[in-house]
Structures are given as structure tokens and as C-alpha cells.
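Let's practice the habit of predicting before peeking. Look at the sequence and jot down your guess about where helices and strands might fall. Then scroll down.
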Amino acid sequence: MSRNQYKTSYLLRNIMKSSEEKDQVKVGEFISALGDRSFCLAILVFSLPNSLPIPGIPGFSTITGLPITFIAMQMVLGRKSLWLPKKIAEKQFSSRALAKMLSKAIPAVERLERLLKPRWLALTSPLGERFLGVLMVVLSLIIALPIPGGNFLPGLSMSLIALAMLERDGIFLMGAVCFALGSIVFMYKIIIGFFTWVGHQFAKLF
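Done guessing? Here is the structure:
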């Protein structure tokens, strides 16, 4: 996976501008347009709707959660290019709604970029990406669970990790990984509590 020479906010602005030109776009076409930056940039874009306190994008739920798992698994395998199943690649979402979401997210990304710079590059190496892929798989599976409000912490975790990888900032990446691990522990307790409550409700029926 080659590294890009542009700031992440610049890449997001390009995506936003191209998205404003269409009403609908297929997931496969969107991924192809990202080129060799597709892995982390795709995860960043797909996780952002779960990271922001704004209404969801119609149709965008089809490319979060489990579909992100496909991307993360290919990071683990060290693939050079991204592949998605045809059923997912053919899904469409509102590109104008995506552009609107990005317009709200880019200022926050730009503020974070002021703190980011290439350092501790070993952590952002291809080998590091494989280990992060495992973490992304776990986070994406949590997003896929039908838990009210359960998307925010894992979505934010993936956005921060993807941003750190794109900017090649190993120190920020360490902080993002710690945040992600804390989010997993917190969500684990929430999930256990949820299913325990459901079990008690069923028990009252019998």
C-alpha cells in the first residue's frame, strides 16, 4: 500500500467535490476512485458517519459495519488492492449526502492534522497495518451489532486509527489504539449487560 503525499483533509476535499457532481454512486466505483490509498482512506470515510453527531446518510449503513470488515481483513492479509463482493460493490448511496457529511468532518480533521506529523514510522509500516487490521475487524463487528448508540465509540476509534495511518504518525496511532482498546472493553460490558437484560426479560415470560 503506497503512501500518499497529500494531507488527509486535501484528499477528503477532493472526494467531497467529486461527490457533489452526482446524485448516487456505487460503492465499487467509489473504492476504485480512491486508487492505491483505498484501505485507510475508505475506512476513514466509511467510519466518519458513525463518529459524528449528525443524522445518518440514507443508504450509507450498507457500507459500514460488516463491509468495513472486508476491508480490514484484506489489510490483515496484506493485499495491495481492495476487493469487495459484488453484492456490496453494487450498493449505492447518496453522494451529495456524503459530501455534506465530509464538509462537517473536514474542519475537525484539519484541527487534528496540526498535531500530526510523520514519526515512529515503524508503527505505520505494512506489518503494523496487518496488526491494525485485526483491531479494525473487531471494531467493525461491534458496529454491526444492533445496539442503540453502539456505533459511536468503535466508529470514532476507526476514524482516529485511519487518520493516524494516513498521516504516518506513530505516536498519535498509539493513542488511537489505546482509545480503541478502551472502547472495546466498554462496549463489551455494554453488550454483556444488554444480553443479560434480554435474558431476564425472557425469563419473566416463563
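How did you do? The beta strands are 24-26, 92-94.
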